[in-house]
Amino acid sequence: MRVLELDEQVYLEGVFYPKEVELRGKISRGLVEEISRLKKEPEWMTRHRLRALEYFEKAPMPKWMTGVWSIDLDEISSYYVKPAHAKVEKWEDLPEEIRRIYEKLNLPETYAKYLAGLTTVLDSESVYTAMKDLLKDLGVVMVPMEEAVRKYPDLVKQYFGRVFPYTDHKFAALHHALWSGGVFVYVPRNVKIPYPVEAFFFIGSELEGQFEHTVVVTDVNSEITFIEGCSAPRLKTFSFHDGMVELYAHEGSKLSFVTVQNWSRDIVNFNNKRGIAEKNSVIEWIEGSIGSKITITYPSTILKGEYAKTNSTVVGIANGPFIKDTGSKIVHAAPYTSSRVVSKSISAKRGVNIYRGMVQVNKGARGSKSFVQCESLILDEESKSYTYPIIHAYENDADIAHEATTARISEDQLFYLKSRGLSEREALSLMILGFIRDVFPRLPFEYVSMLTKVIQLEFSEMGGVG
């Protein structure tokens, strides 16, 4: 995936394309029922949406979410936007104005070289889904979520809302009531996919809500890497993203979920992510949070089976008067489970980074181990970084370690690199990349290159620090 130069603005401006449906108005039963009708959903999904709406209307606004009180949901004018063009499986069948968006992001080339499957969601609906013959021959299911609801209802019912129910909090309920778009992936027993699959989400309109729902299931002894990419144009006002990811790793399987989030500065990004790991399985989260006005996301794992493991690596960059409220939550619910959480945050130009994490060892989860590492890099006097760790251990032999460090880039360090022939801009980029270097080995090569370029562009206009 190519990163656009600054004059192209990664986010693209003036995204115009034909729309078949654009639902406007306040959140209501009528709105929810109309979304369900347009999607031709079975009755059980309509009932699910309406139960979630009822809970949303009663649930209080979460006060612990930084900046959430600034979101006025009544300002959002579009809760469902359907492109006029139906989903296709060939690039050449996409309308030119839509194809141009993805070509600028280099998605066709990325799919051809590095991916086993790709689906793209524009606003509220999938417009392109393709799988290479390898996945089809192995019996892998990878379809837009609305298609899965119709084609694989029994399979979807097993997992949809099971990992992250609408009763979790107000915005989870809102998501379940209004969800649209997203992907359903099922990897059969004993199938190990050697190449990643990707879903790419694009918000093309202002004052829009995007509520995609992604479910990835790895059956016994299977393996997959799923990559989630996000982008949006620069907008005059704002748009709201309230997505959800549910992972379910069955016994002996491995599921890696990678997010490269580079929303424009006008997006309020709330992302609900949770996984369940059965016996001897592994769930891995890798989160690169770069763009957006406000981001609130805590990739979480419930270690349900003995010897289950999880690794969570989160990088949050707040470059400007923006907020990154990130972290990870781990529940050790079975014996001999282990977790590792690494959080890296970079704050500049009045940026605020918040780590909000939890490790809980339940009664009966004997022999559990957890390691949490929080590292913050602050580039100027006006920026801030906060850490709020929570630890609950209900077994005496729980082995839990937490360490946190905060550092600044000093003029001495910059001077040393500049004396070796680097410009101040090059030196700063090098030091920032060095700070997050241990994230790179977990990423596919193409995405290391992309993340490196994004960070270099992000800090290309930085001046002196300290």
TrEMBL record:
> Which InterPro entries does the UniProt entry name for this protein?
Fe-S_cluster_assembly_SufBD, SUF_FeS_clus_asmbl_SufB, SUF_FeS_clus_asmbl_SufBD_core, SUF_FeS_clus_asmbl_SufBD_sf, SufBD_N
> What GO terms describe the biological role, i.e. biological process, of this protein?
iron-sulfur cluster assembly
Pfam families in UniProt? SUFBD_core, SufBD_N
**Protein known as:** Fe-S cluster assembly protein SufB
Task: Please report the stretch or stretches of sequence annotated as the SUF system FeS cluster assembly SufBD N-terminal domain.
Answer: 127-197
Tell me where in this chain the SUF system FeS cluster assembly SufBD core domain is found.
Answer: 203-435
> Which family does the record claim for this protein?
Belongs to the iron-sulfur cluster assembly SufBD family.
